[in-house]
Amino acid sequence: MRQVYLDHIAATPLDPQVLEAMLPFLRDKFGNPQSLHSAGQEALVALEEARSRLAGLIGAEDSEVFFTSSGSEANNFALKGMALARRDKGNHLVLSAVEHQSVLHSVKSLEKLGFSSTLVPVDKYGLVDPEAVRRAIQKETVLVSVILASNEVGTVEPVIEIARICRAAGVPLHTDAVAAVGNIPVDVKELGVDALSLAADQFYGPKGSGALFVKKGARILPLIDGGIQEGGRRAGTENVAGIVGMGKAAELARARLSERQEGMKTLRDRLIDRLPQRVDRVYLTGHRERRLPHHASFCIEFIEGEAMLLNLDMKGIAVSSGSACTSRALKASHVLLAMGIDHALAQGSLVFSLVDSTTAEDIDYLLDVIPPVIDRLRKMSPLYTKFLEESQK
Amino acid sequence: MRQVYLDHIAATPLDPQVLEAMLPFLRDKFGNPQSLHSAGQEALVALEEARSRLAGLIGAEDSEVFFTSSGSEANNFALKGMALARRDKGNHLVLSAVEHQSVLHSVKSLEKLGFSSTLVPVDKYGLVDPEAVRRAIQKETVLVSVILASNEVGTVEPVIEIARICRAAGVPLHTDAVAAVGNIPVDVKELGVDALSLAADQFYGPKGSGALFVKKGARILPLIDGGIQEGGRRAGTENVAGIVGMGKAAELARARLSERQEGMKTLRDRLIDRLPQRVDRVYLTGHRERRLPHHASFCIEFIEGEAMLLNLDMKGIAVSSGSACTSRALKASHVLLAMGIDHALAQGSLVFSLVDSTTAEDIDYLLDVIPPVIDRLRKMSPLYTKFLEESQK
Amino acid sequence: MIYTDKVMDHFQNPRNVGVIKDADGIGQVGNPVCGDMMSFYIKVKDSKLEDIKFQTFGCGAAIAVSSIVSEMAMGRTLEEAMKITNEIVAEELGGLPKNKLHCSNLGADALHAAIADYRKKHAAEKSEVSPEAEKCYCPYCEGPIEGLEAGCTACNVELEECPHCGNLTKKGEEKCAKCGADLEAD
Amino acid sequence: MIYTDKVMDHFQNPRNVGVIKDADGIGQVGNPVCGDMMSFYIKVKDSKLEDIKFQTFGCGAAIAVSSIVSEMAMGRTLEEAMKITNEIVAEELGGLPKNKLHCSNLGADALHAAIADYRKKHAAEKSEVSPEAEKCYCPYCEGPIEGLEAGCTACNVELEECPHCGNLTKKGEEKCAKCGADLEAD
Ligand SMILES: Cc1ncc(COP(=O)(O)O)c(C=O)c1O
Ligand SMILES: Cc1ncc(COP(=O)(O)O)c(C=O)c1O
Ligand code: FES
Ligand code: FES
User: Fold this and answer.
1) DSSP structure class, residue A153
2) Residues with CB under 6 A from ligand 2
3) Which of B64, C72, C92, D65 has the most CB atoms lying inside 10 A of its own CB?
């Protein structure tokens, strides 16, 4: 059976060059980067080279990059670390209504420690209005966090404008760029952000490797306290192979970004344009233009996402019905609800995400396979029956 | 030049079988364990198998094992997560004076949030007196943390007795077993602990993979908030390859533990017995018997550790002068000071740590190489000159 | 797989899907906000379920549960059908992920509601529909839960009850995991 | 390597190690608590350093610094030798890790102390030993530090000064990273 993998927002395969770069550090180069002897120093050099490559991808200084074990850890580090470091300045946080769970729940934890927060709403495309951020900022606000690109609906937020507002207000801005880095050009200086989260598994690097950019001069407390790793900012023996892989992936992403983007965008557009031609009552979620190049997300009316996902899986097609981080939660996505999509429709969410090796044939196979799947499930759906009855009246 | 690596407390090489187990997950099995489609489920199955193997190594239930990215993260998770979850019960912590930095500094961070702590002293072997723990426990105490085995001096603490006292007092006990798991038999039920930290790179598994055992029923808040991974206890896309490697390493450790221990113990004893015969004024640190099987640590009088370490490195011998996590800090180890060793002597710390492939020839090579190194450095040392002058008087 | 082979079989080849135009009883439970909704249609003859059809909006488990409930009840007396419980359904399916056990309630509930509807219409005898008291399962680790106070003893999550639907949700969540109702922040 | 080739050369083959029994001046700085201690012995002839020997208890940097200081000062006039600063020493060694820069102070300090000792003994002229004001470097990231208030702008660590030796240490540390003195917990 043909296998078509269209859930790359949850996982990308390692680029073979990335694996190649990692292997020596899984074989004989097993030194601990903090060891002062040669084996340790060899690992340290590799670590710093990776840091440099990653910094290069996002236009940061090497010393502004802190390794983490995931995008979620980077988000927790940024939110908790910056909020707690600036506690003397105030106790209020501003975030958008379409943040990732790791940002939302970090804020919940901070609320238990005495912080309060304001959720900035989004429009029907999931876009945050920079002016709304300005209005949400209070005298007590110590941090603003706005996602750069949504993993659920693909929308790319106007972070440059939001950063300008935050700068004027003297409040640092964090952006969750996990879904963005490696897929669209991201430059921390151009964005003007004070902190930025990323994860290697979004751009052909290994799982278990992420990073937080923290602008020079911005204050942050560690999330993981302990030894001197990462300049005392993030303790724990470093995942050397993973970090080296992330560095290599960053180098490749930098070199290939525009080429990758263009290829994926064409196929994404093929899917966005044709799916609604093949199936009725299918709605694109997120913004049509301001979206990730490899991301096409829809709500399919009258049916539920998991049932579609499983049916497509049986046909060899892997897709998701939202964020992998909430795949087992039974509730509708908070992102879709924040965009004003109603509960029933939000349950029918499907996310297709591409990779640089996705082909037009893959998309066409999907376009052939999906209509009967939807048709079959709709025939089972009491909501569809009701809709048909009502439209006959 | 002969290469002798005796710094395995900082890093073990991957067992080839561990790498073998990891590789498929670095190649085509790249699914995200939270994805509901087949590729995701395949990763999930591997993850749960690894959890089961790790649980098997320490006598835990599968559901009591939570993956982390390092021993430090596990320690932070335990200390902060359990203390904050039990905040309604009190705000006092008890820990030993010889805890790892990641425990010590987690407690410092908790102190900023309103907790206080009592440090239980140790004797000259680095041993904690269980009775001293009993005395340190107050009505407000919500957590006790005592290291199972010291990475700096090798001493294995009487955690079973301490656990009995904590149980009687109704206070949960966490133990930092990072240096112990995989090297000595560790059974959470036998120990009677409520939480236990471990890291795979201590037993031929990969760097960047650790775990926290949390006893069923013990309350803990997440350190990394976000998605549903690890039952909502630790968010972030899982380092699947690393976790699979840790699982394999756990399986191997379980099968080979006693054999590994015996082999390393013999060589360790050779080193402990013979080094003081070759060089005078060399003192074993930690307990002679109650110590890790692969650990021999000394203080060499009149000289400083880093100078020795670099000299040995030039002869192809890798050793450490304390914890890798503090290798660049200029101060004497808090562990040695807590044991009553004076500052000057503590500066001369050397730690030799073995691996299952260490040979008698390796030890003998070290024993041949080290006396002239020490001799040369002592000739440079004003302290040694002073000592000689005074002993001539 | 998250589901057993039997669940997947019923999910892929659901028995008795559809609508009975002149049904003797119709039962509908759930709503789209909860992410699941089931309609059961029954034909009754001599106190036996002569025909059953269902429609389901919901996940794989919900579809499989509806299918097997229809199969289990087909041809049975109303009395017998009323004895179908979520435990029996889940068992028949070879088990369900614990966070999906509530779907098995739904199937039996929808059938029972259809029977109640029939009984009401035919006034044969009045009977209260009293679905089994729901067993509680932690929506995070899927472990059984003894009491709210203790939180989930399996995964240690702190739980609170959704005041809207009674579902258990992690403390501090903004919305109920089941019905989506807003929970007050603590 | 953490050290440059030049540092490693001086560390491996230190010049002028030893003691001068009948030294004209002896200077000793540091102490074992700080992890480093240096003794410099000088012979002076015609206001020139005719011979220099040193002993060092300390890390690789400390040994290399002592060695190069002795080499740089050898044969120089006392005036010239007094002009050797930590910057010059560090530069001569091709750089030092920033957390080791204080070792370069030690070398010059010890030499200067020996010269001061000589001058005092020979009462040729009195001069105050005033070592250069120490530059501050973050002991964690090794970046230069502007002021205590700001913390380290490079790595964002919050710093406090050790009341005992003046060294900068991360806030909340229990002991000074340099001299090991107890810091009050905050
Ligand atoms: C006893 C002990 N605890 C904690 C740690 C920290 O573990 P990691 O380096 O994996 O963060 C170590 C590291 O060697 C250790 O030996
Ligand atoms: C926007 C966004 N933020 C955060 C995360 C969490 O990253 P991780 O899974 O690496 O923890 C993701 C994961 O896909 C994401 O898409
Ligand atoms: S429909 Fe299965 S989750 Fe409720
Ligand atoms: S002796 Fe080099 S650190 Fe001070």
Assistant:
1) T
2) A 70-72, 75, 100, 102, 147, 151, 176, 178-179, 199, 210; B 236-237
3) D65
Q: Map residue C133 onto helix, strand or coil.
A: coil
Does an interface of 3+ CB pairs under 8 Å exist between C and D? no
Tell me the domains of chain A and their CATH numbers: 4-11+257-391 (3.90.1150.10), 16-253 (3.40.640.10)
Amino acid B83 reads A
Where in chain A does DSSP place strands (E)? 4-5, 65-68, 92-96, 116-120, 141-145, 173-176, 195-199, 210-214, 282-284, 295-300, 317-318, 349-353
pTM assigned to the model: 0.90
- Residues of chain D in contact with residue B380, where contact means CB-CB under 8 angstroms, are 14, 17, 55-57, 63
Q: Whole-angstrom Cα distance, residue B305 to residue B349?
A: 5
Judged by CB atoms closer than 8 Å, whether chains meet at A233 and D158 is answered as no
Contact between D37 and D57 (Cβ < 8 Å): yes
Chains B and C touch (3+ CB pairs under 8 A): yes
Whether A71 contacts A178, CB under 8 Å: yes
- The maximal CA–CA distance of chain A, rounded, in angstroms, is 82
DSSP conformation class of B149: B
Give the tokens for residue B40.
């995701």
Is B299 an annotated catalytic residue? no
pLDDT digits (tens, 9 = 90+) for C72-118: 999 999 999 999 988 899 999 999 887 787 777 889 999 999 999 99
D88, D75 contact by CB (below 8 A): no
| Pocket lining: B71 vs ligand 1, CB cutoff 6 Å | yes
- Check B97, B169, B221, B325 and give the catalytic one: B325
For chain B, the straight-line distance linking the first and the last C-alpha, in angstroms and rounded, comes to 43
H/E stretch holding B261 reads helix B240-278
The pair of three-digit structure tokens given for residue B373, joined into one six-digit string:
């190194």
Question: Tens digit of pLDDT for each residue in A1-21?
Answer: 899 999 999 999 999 999 999
ipTM for the whole complex: 0.85
CA angle B210, B214, B215 (to 5 degrees): 145
- For chain D, helix (H) and strand (E) counts, in that order, are 5, 5
CA distance linking residue B11 with residue B323, whole number of Å = 11
For C51, the enclosing helix (H) or strand (E) is strand C48-57
Instruction: Using alpha carbons, select from B116, B107, B103, B106 the residue that is nearest to residue B148.
Output: B103
Q: Please indicate if any CB of chain C lies within 8 Å of the CB of A334.
A: yes
CA angle B110, B111, B117 (to 5 degrees): 100
Token pair 């001799």 in the structure block, residue: B375
pLDDT tens column, A248-282: 999 999 999 999 999 999 999 999 999 999 999 99
CA-nearest of D101, D93, D133, D116 to D40 is: D116
Q: At residue D34, does pLDDT exceed 80? A: no
Q: Where are the beta strands (DSSP E) in chain B?
A: 4-5, 65-68, 92-96, 116-120, 141-145, 173-176, 195-199, 210-214, 282-284, 295-300, 317-318, 349-353
Sole residue written with tokens 């060695």:
D67
DSSP state of A281: S
Taken in order C4, C5, C6, C10, the sign of the CA dihedral is positive
